[in-house]
């Protein structure tokens, strides 16, 4: 377990070292692309699932930092009654996490990305809108924050993965994000999984993983 500080609070990070990869970044001794992995509102309740995702990404050649950003507010999972007031604090912590990640030995600060799940994706959009070091976002069924929908900032290349039957974050968020990226002529892909809810299962989960690997390979590997 590693740590960094955000506004005086210690934030835990689970670090997964890149194991392999393709292209220039795969050579021994060279800096590797790196990812922040941001969990959803469930926090660490289902941490093993996030750790499995982190290990999978690391096996594909990315350093992965699984950030316990709820440490900023002392929570294990999101308290929905405080969601709006706590969101800016978590966003600040994720910005600090980007800076921390860029400084890690063996990390290529020019090839950083964020994999965000639900709330984690909303934080990714918010941070990437003002953080040019974020070069790619993987959006797993995340909401587009109202402020960003109004301000329409330029985002980095984004892969949107969403279920058509998501009752927690309606698929309209994915479509709104798609329109924003289209308007900006930003590289993006979108896949809406018919009948899937807030979370992907079965063949949809496998298809999403393959799309993530291709998208990150295109935008971060060998860049």
Automatic annotation (TrEMBL):
Residues 31-204 form the Dienelactone hydrolase domain. This is Dienelactone hydrolase domain-containing protein. One of its GO terms (molecular function) is hydrolase activity.
């Amino acid at each position: 377990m590693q740590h960094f500080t955000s506004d005086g609070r210690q934030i835990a990070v689970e670090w997964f070292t890149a194991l392999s990869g393709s292209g220039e970044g795969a050579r021994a001794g060279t800096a590797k692309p790196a990812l922040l992995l941001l969990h959803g509102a469930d926090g660490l309740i289902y941490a093993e699932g996030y750790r499995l995702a982190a290990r999978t990404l690391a096996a594909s050649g990315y350093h992965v930092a699984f950030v316990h950003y709820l440490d900023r507010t002392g929570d294990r999972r999101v308290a929905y009654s405080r969601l709006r007031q706590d969101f800016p604090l978590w966003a600040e912590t994720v910005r600090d996490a980007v800076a921390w990640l860029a400084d890690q030995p063996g990390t290529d600060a020019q090839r950083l990305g964020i994999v965000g799940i639900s709330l984690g994706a909303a934080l990714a959009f918010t941070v990437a809108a003002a953080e040019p070091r974020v070069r790619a976002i993987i959006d797993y069924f995340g909401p587009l924050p109202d402020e960003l929908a109004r301000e329409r900032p330029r985002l980095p290349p984004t892969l949107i993965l969403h279920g058509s039957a998501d009752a927690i974050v309606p698929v309209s968020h994915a479509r709104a994000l798609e329109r924003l990226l289209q308007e900006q002529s930003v590289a993006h892909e979108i896949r809406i999984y018919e009948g899937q809810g807030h979370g992907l299962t079965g063949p949809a989960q496998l298809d999403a993983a393959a799309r993530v690997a291709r998208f990150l390979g295109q935008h971060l590997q060998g860049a």
